[in-house]
Design a protein that fits this description.
By secondary structure, the chain is mainly beta. Helix content is about 10%, strand content about 35%. It has a single domain (about 30-135), classed as Immunoglobulins (Immunoglobulin-like, Sandwich), CATH 2.60.40.
Length: about 140
């Protein structure tokens, strides 16, 4: 029993000293108060595309793309899939999607739909963030 206490102390010092101990985070990975929303549309020539939600948007778009699958991912600590973010949404009739209650950070955003080339990009989320995607069909 006398050897156990010094052994535990030595182990704790070794873990902290070598950086193998990861301090608990104040916010769980992928959980937060930020959001990411946007519109997936059919790529096209310069065409003013406006929606009721964002009437000032002007992008290269030939209209909204409903029923597209949008995926938001972020690796966990040290690049692991464990503890990371992997969320999926389907666009509505207006091509709109939204991910809520996510932590600030950089994510991979992917959109796909049958008969369209997929789109992938990195997006930095900080608060309420807007990111649209265009798919070529």
């Amino acid at each position: 029993m006398r050897l156990r206490v010094p052994f535990l102390i030595a182990t704790a010092v070794l873990l902290v000293g070598t950086g193998l101990y990861l301090a608990p985070q104040t916010q769980a990975q992928g959980v937060g108060t930020s959001s990411l929303s946007g519109i997936v549309c059919v790529a096209g020539d310069e065409y003013p595309y406006m929606t009721a939600e964002a009437p000032d948007r002007n992008q290269s778009c030939n209209g909204p793309l409903p029923n597209a699958t949008v995926r938001l991912t972020q690796p966990g600590p040290l690049g692991s899939a464990v503890g990371g973010v992997d969320k999926t949404a389907t666009t509505d009739a207006n091509g709109a999607f939204q991910f809520s209650q996510i932590a600030d950070g950089t994510y991979k955003l992917e959109a796909a739909r049958t008969n369209f080339a997929g789109a992938t990009l990195d997006v930095k989320v900080n608060g309420a963030t807007q990111q649209d995607l265009s798919l070529v069909g």
